[in-house]
């Protein structure tokens, strides 16, 4: 596996077995979150209670954004554009857990690489900034 090359220079994140494994793990987390959490949501819809004069069924709530009745509605998630209710609450919590795990993994890997990159001792054992020319070329 070769290093990541941008504009003819080696990037600070070489492609090693650990970075390849972390990328693969991130892809697995993302695929599991999409296929097992988001796509397993169920619509448990009741429509027309109020129009038929029966009143509202117990423990059912109406969402003005979705314009639907939901059983045990928790809230309307604006980021995903769906209501969280009894049919998809478990999948929603799993999705949030996977997002949290992926975010923590990315933050830990980034912090570890940044720590290694910024404080890598050079000849005299003092911290140096070996990637500074790379960053200045990147920002031009």
Radius of gyration: 24 Å
Instruction: Indicate the overall shape.
Output: elongated
- What fraction of residues sit in β-strands? 5-15%
Summarize the biggest pleated sheet. 3 strands, antiparallel
* Proportion of residues in helical segments: 40-55%
Please give the order of strands in the largest beta sheet. 3-5-4
The first-to-last residue Cα distance is: 28 Å
The helix/strand series, from N terminus to C terminus, equals EEHEEEEEHH
Short key terms for the protein model shown above:
Palmitoyltrfase_DHHC, acyltransferase, two-stranded antiparallel ribbon, disordered N terminus, alpha+beta, 140 residues, 7 strands
Per-chain topology:
Blueprint: E1 5-6, E2 9-10, H1 17-38, E3 45-46, E4 60-63, E5 68-71, E6 75-77, E7 82-84, H2 89-118, H3 132-139
In short:
This protein is an alpha+beta fold and 140 residues long. Helices cover 43% and strands 14% of the residues. It has two domains: 1-41 and 99-132, no CATH class; 44-87, no CATH class.
């Amino acid at each position: 596996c070769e290093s990541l090359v941008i504009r003819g220079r080696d990037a600070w994140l070489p492609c090693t077995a650990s970075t390849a494994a972390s990328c693969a793990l991130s892809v697995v987390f993302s695929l599991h979150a999409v296929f097992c959490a988001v796509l397993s949501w169920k619509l448990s819809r009741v429509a027309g209670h109020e129009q038929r004069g029966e009143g509202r069924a117990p423990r059912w709530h109406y969402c003005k954004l979705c314009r639907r009745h939901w059983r045990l509605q928790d809230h309307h998630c604006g980021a995903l554009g769906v209501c969280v209710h009894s049919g998809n609450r478990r999948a929603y919590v799993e999705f949030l857990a996977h997002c949290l795990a992926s975010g923590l993994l990315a933050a830990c890997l980034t912090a570890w690489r940044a720590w290694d990159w910024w404080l890598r001792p050079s000849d005299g054992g003092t911290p140096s900034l070996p990637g500074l020319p790379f960053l200045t070329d990147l920002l031009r």
